[in-house]
Design brief:
- This protein has one domain (about 5-349).
- It has one helix at about 45-50, and strands at about 5, 20-25, 40, 40-45, 55-60, 65-75, 80-85, 95-100, 105, 115-120, 125-130, 135-140, 150-160, 165-175, 175-195, 195-200, 205-215, 220-230, 235-245, 255-260, 265, 270-275, 285, 290-310, 310-330, 330-349.
- The strands form 3 sheets. The protein has a 15-stranded mixed beta sheet that branches. A 9-stranded antiparallel beta sheet has the order 21-20-19-18-26-25-24-23-22, with no helix packed on it. The chain has a two-stranded antiparallel ribbon with strand order 3-4.
- The chain is built from 1 helix and 26 strands.
Length: about 350
Protein backbone atom coordinates (compact mmCIF):
# COMPACT_ATOMS: atom_id res chain seq x y z
CA UNK A 1 0.00 0.00 0.00
CA UNK A 2 1.38 3.42 -0.96
CA UNK A 3 2.82 5.35 1.98
CA UNK A 4 1.25 8.84 1.97
CA UNK A 5 2.33 11.06 4.85
CA UNK A 6 2.34 14.73 5.92
CA UNK A 7 5.26 16.72 4.58
CA UNK A 8 8.14 17.14 7.06
CA UNK A 9 9.53 20.56 7.92
CA UNK A 10 12.86 19.32 6.49
CA UNK A 11 13.86 16.25 4.48
CA UNK A 12 16.99 15.77 6.62
CA UNK A 13 16.93 16.27 10.38
CA UNK A 14 19.77 17.59 12.53
CA UNK A 15 21.17 14.07 12.97
CA UNK A 16 21.40 13.59 9.21
CA UNK A 17 18.48 11.12 8.99
CA UNK A 18 16.37 11.28 5.79
CA UNK A 19 12.57 11.45 5.95
CA UNK A 20 11.09 9.22 3.24
CA UNK A 21 7.58 8.93 1.84
CA UNK A 22 5.10 10.27 -0.67
CA UNK A 23 4.10 13.59 0.83
CA UNK A 24 0.68 15.22 0.83
CA UNK A 25 2.27 18.61 0.09
CA UNK A 26 5.72 20.11 -0.65
CA UNK A 27 8.34 19.84 2.11
CA UNK A 28 9.43 22.82 4.15
CA UNK A 29 13.13 22.36 3.33
CA UNK A 30 14.44 20.05 0.63
CA UNK A 31 17.90 19.80 2.22
CA UNK A 32 18.83 16.34 0.96
CA UNK A 33 22.41 17.57 0.49
CA UNK A 34 22.72 17.46 4.31
CA UNK A 35 22.22 13.68 4.45
CA UNK A 36 25.12 11.72 5.93
CA UNK A 37 26.56 9.13 3.58
CA UNK A 38 28.23 6.09 5.10
CA UNK A 39 31.57 4.82 3.77
CA UNK A 40 34.19 2.41 5.20
CA UNK A 41 32.41 2.26 8.57
CA UNK A 42 32.17 6.04 8.97
CA UNK A 43 30.61 9.13 7.44
CA UNK A 44 31.82 10.22 4.01
CA UNK A 45 33.45 13.68 4.32
CA UNK A 46 30.93 16.33 3.31
CA UNK A 47 33.14 17.79 0.56
CA UNK A 48 33.39 14.34 -1.02
CA UNK A 49 29.69 13.64 -0.55
CA UNK A 50 28.97 16.88 -2.41
CA UNK A 51 30.67 15.42 -5.49
CA UNK A 52 28.16 12.53 -5.34
CA UNK A 53 25.11 14.83 -5.11
CA UNK A 54 23.03 15.14 -8.31
CA UNK A 55 20.35 17.77 -8.86
CA UNK A 56 18.47 19.35 -11.75
CA UNK A 57 15.47 21.37 -12.80
CA UNK A 58 13.88 20.29 -16.07
CA UNK A 59 10.91 21.64 -18.00
CA UNK A 60 9.12 19.75 -20.78
CA UNK A 61 7.11 22.55 -22.44
CA UNK A 62 4.30 21.21 -24.61
CA UNK A 63 2.63 23.60 -27.05
CA UNK A 64 0.22 22.47 -29.80
CA UNK A 65 2.78 23.51 -32.45
CA UNK A 66 6.13 22.95 -30.71
CA UNK A 67 8.01 21.17 -27.92
CA UNK A 68 10.77 22.82 -25.89
CA UNK A 69 12.85 20.97 -23.32
CA UNK A 70 14.99 23.10 -20.97
CA UNK A 71 17.29 21.75 -18.26
CA UNK A 72 19.91 22.92 -15.78
CA UNK A 73 21.88 20.01 -14.29
CA UNK A 74 24.48 19.86 -11.50
CA UNK A 75 26.17 16.46 -11.16
CA UNK A 76 28.62 17.61 -8.49
CA UNK A 77 31.70 17.17 -10.70
CA UNK A 78 30.03 18.46 -13.87
CA UNK A 79 27.38 21.04 -14.78
CA UNK A 80 25.28 21.15 -17.93
CA UNK A 81 22.34 22.88 -19.55
CA UNK A 82 20.42 22.44 -22.77
CA UNK A 83 17.50 23.87 -24.71
CA UNK A 84 15.98 21.45 -27.23
CA UNK A 85 13.23 22.73 -29.53
CA UNK A 86 11.30 20.72 -32.11
CA UNK A 87 8.34 21.94 -34.19
CA UNK A 88 5.61 19.34 -33.79
CA UNK A 89 4.79 19.64 -37.51
CA UNK A 90 7.83 17.42 -38.12
CA UNK A 91 10.53 20.02 -38.81
CA UNK A 92 14.15 19.42 -37.72
CA UNK A 93 15.02 19.97 -34.05
CA UNK A 94 17.40 22.66 -32.78
CA UNK A 95 19.51 22.15 -29.68
CA UNK A 96 21.79 24.56 -27.86
CA UNK A 97 23.82 23.18 -24.95
CA UNK A 98 26.67 24.02 -22.63
CA UNK A 99 28.67 21.68 -20.39
CA UNK A 100 31.70 21.82 -18.12
CA UNK A 101 32.90 21.62 -14.51
CA UNK A 102 33.24 25.43 -14.39
CA UNK A 103 29.95 26.32 -16.09
CA UNK A 104 28.20 29.15 -14.23
CA UNK A 105 25.13 27.14 -13.23
CA UNK A 106 23.07 26.61 -10.10
CA UNK A 107 19.92 24.66 -9.22
CA UNK A 108 17.51 26.28 -6.78
CA UNK A 109 17.76 25.01 -3.21
CA UNK A 110 14.02 25.56 -2.76
CA UNK A 111 11.01 26.14 -5.03
CA UNK A 112 9.39 28.54 -2.57
CA UNK A 113 11.75 31.38 -3.52
CA UNK A 114 14.62 29.85 -5.46
CA UNK A 115 16.59 30.70 -8.57
CA UNK A 116 18.02 28.30 -11.14
CA UNK A 117 20.36 29.45 -13.89
CA UNK A 118 22.99 28.54 -16.47
CA UNK A 119 25.07 31.30 -18.04
CA UNK A 120 27.80 31.26 -20.64
CA UNK A 121 28.84 33.41 -23.56
CA UNK A 122 25.84 33.64 -25.88
CA UNK A 123 23.77 31.40 -23.59
CA UNK A 124 21.45 32.30 -20.71
CA UNK A 125 18.76 30.24 -18.99
CA UNK A 126 17.17 31.75 -15.89
CA UNK A 127 14.32 30.29 -13.84
CA UNK A 128 12.51 32.10 -11.04
CA UNK A 129 10.60 29.78 -8.70
CA UNK A 130 7.88 31.33 -6.55
CA UNK A 131 5.87 28.30 -5.45
CA UNK A 132 4.08 30.11 -2.63
CA UNK A 133 3.00 32.85 -5.04
CA UNK A 134 1.88 30.24 -7.56
CA UNK A 135 4.27 30.53 -10.49
CA UNK A 136 7.60 29.66 -12.10
CA UNK A 137 9.08 32.02 -14.70
CA UNK A 138 11.50 30.85 -17.41
CA UNK A 139 13.67 33.14 -19.53
CA UNK A 140 15.91 31.84 -22.34
CA UNK A 141 18.27 33.95 -24.44
CA UNK A 142 20.62 31.98 -26.71
CA UNK A 143 22.58 33.47 -29.61
CA UNK A 144 22.81 31.83 -33.03
CA UNK A 145 25.71 29.39 -33.30
CA UNK A 146 26.80 27.97 -36.64
CA UNK A 147 23.72 26.61 -38.43
CA UNK A 148 21.63 26.75 -35.24
CA UNK A 149 19.39 29.85 -35.09
CA UNK A 150 18.98 32.07 -32.05
CA UNK A 151 16.44 30.96 -29.45
CA UNK A 152 14.44 33.17 -27.10
CA UNK A 153 11.68 32.27 -24.67
CA UNK A 154 9.76 34.18 -22.02
CA UNK A 155 7.33 31.86 -20.26
CA UNK A 156 5.37 31.56 -17.04
CA UNK A 157 4.09 28.32 -15.50
CA UNK A 158 0.98 28.74 -13.33
CA UNK A 159 1.11 26.64 -10.15
CA UNK A 160 -2.10 26.99 -8.11
CA UNK A 161 -1.53 24.46 -5.34
CA UNK A 162 -5.13 24.78 -4.13
CA UNK A 163 -6.43 23.16 -7.33
CA UNK A 164 -3.31 21.55 -8.85
CA UNK A 165 -1.50 19.18 -6.53
CA UNK A 166 2.19 18.41 -7.12
CA UNK A 167 3.79 14.99 -6.69
CA UNK A 168 6.42 15.20 -3.94
CA UNK A 169 8.38 12.14 -2.86
CA UNK A 170 11.62 11.10 -1.14
CA UNK A 171 12.66 7.45 -1.36
CA UNK A 172 15.64 5.09 -1.10
CA UNK A 173 17.43 4.17 -4.35
CA UNK A 174 20.11 1.94 -2.83
CA UNK A 175 21.72 1.20 0.53
CA UNK A 176 22.14 4.55 2.26
CA UNK A 177 21.19 6.42 -0.94
CA UNK A 178 18.09 8.60 -1.44
CA UNK A 179 16.37 10.74 -4.05
CA UNK A 180 13.83 13.55 -3.81
CA UNK A 181 11.51 14.63 -6.60
CA UNK A 182 8.90 17.35 -7.09
CA UNK A 183 6.81 17.00 -10.24
CA UNK A 184 3.81 18.93 -11.54
CA UNK A 185 1.87 19.55 -14.75
CA UNK A 186 1.14 23.27 -15.08
CA UNK A 187 -0.67 25.61 -17.49
CA UNK A 188 1.86 27.57 -19.57
CA UNK A 189 1.75 31.09 -21.00
CA UNK A 190 4.25 33.24 -22.91
CA UNK A 191 6.23 33.19 -26.15
CA UNK A 192 9.00 31.21 -27.88
CA UNK A 193 11.02 32.41 -30.88
CA UNK A 194 13.50 30.45 -32.99
CA UNK A 195 15.15 32.37 -35.81
CA UNK A 196 12.26 33.73 -37.84
CA UNK A 197 9.63 31.39 -36.35
CA UNK A 198 7.59 31.95 -33.23
CA UNK A 199 4.97 30.25 -31.06
CA UNK A 200 2.64 31.58 -28.39
CA UNK A 201 1.79 29.45 -25.34
CA UNK A 202 -1.90 29.68 -24.47
CA UNK A 203 -2.53 28.33 -20.93
CA UNK A 204 -5.77 26.73 -22.14
CA UNK A 205 -3.80 24.52 -24.56
CA UNK A 206 -0.14 24.57 -23.45
CA UNK A 207 1.49 22.77 -20.52
CA UNK A 208 4.75 22.73 -18.59
CA UNK A 209 5.85 19.43 -17.04
CA UNK A 210 8.09 20.45 -14.14
CA UNK A 211 10.70 18.00 -12.83
CA UNK A 212 12.90 18.98 -9.87
CA UNK A 213 15.27 16.28 -8.71
CA UNK A 214 17.87 15.93 -5.94
CA UNK A 215 19.64 12.64 -5.26
CA UNK A 216 22.55 10.67 -3.89
CA UNK A 217 22.46 7.92 -6.49
CA UNK A 218 24.54 4.73 -6.45
CA UNK A 219 27.50 4.76 -8.79
CA UNK A 220 25.59 2.60 -11.29
CA UNK A 221 22.11 4.02 -11.86
CA UNK A 222 19.28 2.97 -14.15
CA UNK A 223 15.82 4.37 -14.70
CA UNK A 224 12.90 4.44 -17.12
CA UNK A 225 10.52 7.41 -17.16
CA UNK A 226 7.30 8.39 -18.91
CA UNK A 227 5.38 11.66 -18.76
CA UNK A 228 2.60 13.32 -20.75
CA UNK A 229 0.29 16.32 -20.68
CA UNK A 230 -2.68 17.32 -22.82
CA UNK A 231 -6.42 17.70 -23.10
CA UNK A 232 -8.83 14.81 -23.49
CA UNK A 233 -11.63 14.94 -26.04
CA UNK A 234 -14.06 16.12 -23.33
CA UNK A 235 -11.88 19.18 -22.55
CA UNK A 236 -10.38 18.03 -19.24
CA UNK A 237 -6.58 17.92 -19.03
CA UNK A 238 -4.61 14.81 -18.15
CA UNK A 239 -1.07 14.51 -16.82
CA UNK A 240 1.09 11.49 -16.08
CA UNK A 241 4.38 10.65 -14.40
CA UNK A 242 5.77 7.11 -14.19
CA UNK A 243 9.24 5.97 -13.13
CA UNK A 244 10.98 2.64 -12.61
CA UNK A 245 14.36 2.99 -10.89
CA UNK A 246 16.54 1.52 -8.14
CA UNK A 247 13.85 1.80 -5.48
CA UNK A 248 13.29 -1.73 -4.08
CA UNK A 249 9.97 -0.91 -2.35
CA UNK A 250 7.98 0.95 -4.99
CA UNK A 251 4.71 -0.63 -3.86
CA UNK A 252 4.97 1.69 -0.82
CA UNK A 253 6.93 4.67 -2.18
CA UNK A 254 7.14 5.71 -5.83
CA UNK A 255 6.91 8.61 -8.30
CA UNK A 256 3.85 7.31 -10.14
CA UNK A 257 0.74 9.47 -10.51
CA UNK A 258 -2.04 10.71 -12.77
CA UNK A 259 -3.49 14.21 -12.78
CA UNK A 260 -7.00 15.05 -13.99
CA UNK A 261 -7.74 18.79 -14.04
CA UNK A 262 -5.20 19.17 -11.21
CA UNK A 263 -6.50 16.40 -8.92
CA UNK A 264 -3.84 13.77 -8.27
CA UNK A 265 -4.19 9.98 -8.11
CA UNK A 266 -1.20 7.95 -6.93
CA UNK A 267 -0.42 4.71 -8.75
CA UNK A 268 1.31 1.40 -8.11
CA UNK A 269 4.64 0.20 -9.53
CA UNK A 270 5.28 0.98 -13.20
CA UNK A 271 6.09 -1.53 -15.92
CA UNK A 272 7.93 -0.68 -19.14
CA UNK A 273 8.11 -3.01 -22.14
CA UNK A 274 10.44 -1.85 -24.92
CA UNK A 275 13.14 -2.96 -27.31
CA UNK A 276 16.54 -3.11 -25.61
CA UNK A 277 18.25 -2.61 -28.97
CA UNK A 278 16.16 0.15 -30.57
CA UNK A 279 14.50 2.75 -28.30
CA UNK A 280 12.62 4.18 -31.31
CA UNK A 281 10.46 1.04 -31.48
CA UNK A 282 7.01 1.27 -29.79
CA UNK A 283 6.83 1.04 -26.00
CA UNK A 284 4.10 -0.42 -23.79
CA UNK A 285 3.59 1.05 -20.33
CA UNK A 286 1.35 -0.16 -17.51
CA UNK A 287 1.09 -0.19 -13.72
CA UNK A 288 0.26 -2.80 -11.12
CA UNK A 289 -3.52 -2.88 -11.06
CA UNK A 290 -5.72 -1.76 -13.95
CA UNK A 291 -5.40 2.04 -13.76
CA UNK A 292 -3.23 2.41 -16.84
CA UNK A 293 -2.36 0.64 -20.10
CA UNK A 294 -0.69 2.81 -22.74
CA UNK A 295 1.29 2.45 -25.91
CA UNK A 296 3.94 5.02 -26.81
CA UNK A 297 5.05 5.69 -30.39
CA UNK A 298 8.38 7.62 -30.52
CA UNK A 299 8.62 10.34 -33.17
CA UNK A 300 12.00 11.95 -32.36
CA UNK A 301 14.39 12.31 -29.47
CA UNK A 302 17.66 13.22 -27.82
CA UNK A 303 20.37 10.56 -27.57
CA UNK A 304 23.66 10.57 -25.70
CA UNK A 305 26.51 8.09 -25.41
CA UNK A 306 29.11 9.64 -23.15
CA UNK A 307 32.32 7.93 -22.02
CA UNK A 308 34.86 9.86 -19.94
CA UNK A 309 37.26 7.42 -18.32
CA UNK A 310 35.36 5.78 -15.45
CA UNK A 311 32.24 7.83 -16.26
CA UNK A 312 29.59 6.48 -18.64
CA UNK A 313 26.15 7.73 -19.63
CA UNK A 314 23.78 6.16 -22.16
CA UNK A 315 20.66 8.27 -22.44
CA UNK A 316 17.59 8.32 -24.70
CA UNK A 317 14.82 10.90 -24.22
CA UNK A 318 12.09 10.30 -26.77
CA UNK A 319 9.23 12.51 -27.89
CA UNK A 320 6.05 10.96 -29.18
CA UNK A 321 2.38 10.18 -28.63
CA UNK A 322 0.53 7.99 -26.17
CA UNK A 323 -2.56 5.92 -26.92
CA UNK A 324 -4.59 3.60 -24.73
CA UNK A 325 -6.60 4.20 -21.59
CA UNK A 326 -6.25 5.20 -17.95
CA UNK A 327 -8.64 4.88 -15.03
CA UNK A 328 -9.09 7.82 -12.66
CA UNK A 329 -11.39 7.45 -9.66
CA UNK A 330 -13.17 4.54 -11.31
CA UNK A 331 -13.72 6.40 -14.59
CA UNK A 332 -12.13 4.97 -17.72
CA UNK A 333 -10.54 7.69 -19.85
CA UNK A 334 -9.43 6.98 -23.44
CA UNK A 335 -6.06 8.48 -24.40
CA UNK A 336 -5.73 9.24 -28.10
CA UNK A 337 -2.54 10.85 -29.32
CA UNK A 338 -1.49 12.87 -26.25
CA UNK A 339 2.08 14.19 -26.51
CA UNK A 340 4.75 13.23 -24.01
CA UNK A 341 8.19 11.81 -23.31
CA UNK A 342 9.71 8.43 -22.54
CA UNK A 343 13.27 8.06 -21.32
CA UNK A 344 15.74 5.34 -20.44
CA UNK A 345 19.02 6.12 -18.72
CA UNK A 346 21.96 3.91 -17.79
CA UNK A 347 24.86 5.68 -16.11
CA UNK A 348 28.00 5.05 -14.11
CA UNK A 349 28.77 8.37 -12.43
Amino acid sequence: MLLLRPAPSALVDEAGAVQTGVFAEPCGKTNLDRARLRWAGGNLPRWLARLRFKQWQHFALVLPEAFLGVAVVDLGWMRASWCHLRPRSGGPPTEHARRGPLLDAEVAAELSQGRTWARARGYRVEIENELEAGWHRLHVEVAARGPRPALQASLRCLHDRQTNHPLTVCMPVGPGRYMYSHKAVLPLEGEIALGGSGWRADPARSFAILDVHKAYYPRHTLWEWATLAGRLTDGRWLGLNLTRNGNSDDARINENALWLDGAIQHLGPARFERSADDPMQPWRISVAGDELDLGFAPEAGRHERLRLGLIRSVFHQLQGKFRGAVRFGGERLPVEGLFGLCEDHDSVW
